[in-house]
């Protein structure tokens, strides 16, 4: 198989551009929710922002499972073994559905206890908003699970256009329902949460239909294909579990950091939440190319073209840096204007602008090495290594240093973000060393 002909620039554009657009649309949902709810009250914004951290945790673990599915399915697709690829897809659907339903039940049944455990004592108004948003969000988890599984199935065959189109539909529905529920029916937090639930439900149902469609080259057909296949489940979980744990621990570390912010007051929570929401945009090129890397590396390995693994990883990493630099430059220049879109207090606005500009400068050197490159390592079968490095770095450098800088040295929210930057530099250096060591040994 001539991999260079398969992964020419035309193919890479068709794979990467839809993922970039999809990521923009996915991030837009969170932005819209935050913008709309900020018009209600700062306590409502704070409550929603706190729960978004829990939602991110669940979504990131799902993303870890998706990575496992994409990597294994791409491997068999590269081998031209489409029957086994179809079986892998069915196992991924089962795994995602079981996990998402379990998380839904936990968050609905123990919503107040969970919020209190993670965020401690918060104002009654904030707690009420947080509970409402968590319960409705939890109802959408199964739909998010089957959507992520479906998106992974199409990406593994090189088709990222389907999930992009559905993401566009989801955003339009979410925007229209947000406006109707909040501004027309005055449902406030309940309205924002319900809009997201409906849009996610529709997307999950539609992508499941498309996965079973004859037009899908790795169509899932019939009930029998969903029978558990232990050997395939193990292969998926060998990548999915370390990736899921890594993503989960990353978000748990962020929750630990957010719990520190809770003692700094509502302004600090709001500024940090808006900052995290906004940085999703400039990170999109690196995230999208990282997702594409799993497909490309997986298919190269399946075809036995190991030298091409390193060639395309270097090539896509250069694209990630170009996109990253452009987006961070724009964010640095227009940080104040972007933050002003949110209805924040003066202190919260100033803090948000400061941390965004510091982020823009600190991340341009290392972000792709910290978050894009490890996807190539995972697709090479190195998921346990990336998990170990990420967890150690998270707890030693981000959590501990954040506590020292923000609480002990009283640097506030900026101290938390500096701790995050330290974490990025450590893991970026380690992942780079690992990548070149594998290349030298041709592993």
Structure explained in plain terms:
84% of the residues lie in helices and 0% in strands. The protein is mainly alpha-helical. Helix 2 packs antiparallel against helix 9 and helix 4 runs antiparallel to helix 6. The radius of gyration is 21 Å and the shape is globular. The mean pLDDT is 86.
How many beta-strand elements? 0
Helical element count?
Answer: 18
Alpha-carbon distance between the two ends: 20 Å
Radius of gyration in whole Å, from Cα? Answer: 21 Å
Q: What percent of residues adopt helix (DSSP H or I)?
A: over 70%
β-sheet strand percentage: under 5%
Helices and strands, in order, run as: HHHHHHHHHHHHHHHHHH
List the helices and strands and how they pair.
Blueprint: H1 3-6, H2 9-38, H3 42-78, H4 82-109, H5 111-119, H6 124-139, H7 141-156, H8 161-184, H9 188-211, H10 230-262, H11 266-279, H12 284-302, H13 306-339, H14 346-363, H15 367-371, H16 373-379, H17 383-408, H18 413-441
Helix pairs in contact: 2-3, 2-8, 2-9, 2-12, 3-4, 3-6, 3-7, 3-10, 3-11, 3-12, 4-6, 4-7, 6-9, 7-9, 8-9, 10-17, 11-14, 12-13, 12-16, 13-14, 14-18, 16-17, 17-18
Short description:
With 443 residues, the chain is an all-alpha fold.
Give short descriptive properties of this protein.
single chain, 443 residues, mainly alpha, 18 helices, 0% strand
């Amino acid at each position: 198989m001539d991999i260079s002909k398969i992964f020419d620039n035309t193919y890479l554009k068709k794979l990467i551009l839809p993922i970039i657009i999809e990521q923009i649309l996915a991030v837009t949902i969170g932005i819209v929710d935050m913008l709309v709810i900020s018009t209600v009250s700062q306590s409502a914004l704070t409550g929603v922002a706190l729960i978004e951290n829990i939602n991110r945790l669940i979504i990131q673990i799902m993303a870890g499972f998706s990575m496992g599915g994409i990597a294994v399915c791409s491997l068999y697709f590269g081998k031209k073994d489409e029957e086994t690829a179809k079986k892998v897809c069915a196992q991924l659907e089962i795994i995602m559905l079981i996990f998402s339903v379990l998380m839904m039940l936990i968050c609905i049944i123990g919503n107040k206890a969970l919020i209190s455990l993670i965020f401690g004592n918060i104002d009654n108004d904030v707690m009420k908003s947080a509970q409402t948003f968590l319960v409705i969000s939890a109802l959408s988890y199964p739909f998010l699970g089957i959507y992520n599984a479906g998106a992974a199935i199409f990406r593994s065959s090189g088709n990222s256009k389907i999930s992009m189109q559905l993401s566009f539909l989801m955003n339009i529905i979410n925007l229209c329902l947000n406006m109707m529920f909040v501004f027309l029916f005055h449902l406030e937090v309940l309205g924002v949460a319900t809009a997201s639930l409906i849009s996610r439900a529709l997307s999950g149902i539609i992508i499941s239909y498309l996965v079973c469609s004859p037009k899908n080259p790795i169509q899932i057909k019939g009930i029998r294909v969903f029978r558990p296949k232990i050997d395939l489940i193990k292969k998926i979980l060998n990548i999915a579990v370390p990736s899921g744990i890594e993503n989960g621990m990353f978000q748990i570390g962020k929750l630990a950091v957010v719990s520190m912010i809770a003692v700094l007051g509502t302004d600090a929570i709001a500024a940090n939440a808006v900052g995290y929401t906004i940085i999703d945009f400039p990170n999109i090129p690196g995230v999208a190319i990282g997702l594409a890397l799993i497909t490309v590396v997986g298919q190269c390995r399946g075809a036995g073209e190991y030298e091409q693994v390193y060639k395309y990883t270097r090539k896509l990493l250069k694209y990630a840096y170009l996109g990253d630099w452009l987006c961070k430059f724009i964010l640095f220049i227009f940080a104040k204007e972007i933050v002003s879109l949110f209805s924040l207090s003066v202190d919260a606005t100033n803090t948000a602008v400061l941390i965004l500009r510091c982020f823009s400068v600190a991340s341009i050197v290392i972000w792709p090495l910290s978050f894009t490159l490890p996807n190539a390592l995972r697709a090479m079968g190195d998921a346990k290594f990336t998990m170990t490095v990420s967890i150690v770095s998270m707890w030693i450098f981000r959590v501990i240093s954040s506590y020292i800088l923000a609480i002990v040295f009283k640097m506030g929210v900026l101290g938390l973000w500096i701790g995050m930057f330290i974490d990025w530099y450590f893991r970026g250096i380690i992942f780079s060393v690992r990548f070149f060591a594998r290349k030298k040994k041709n592993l």
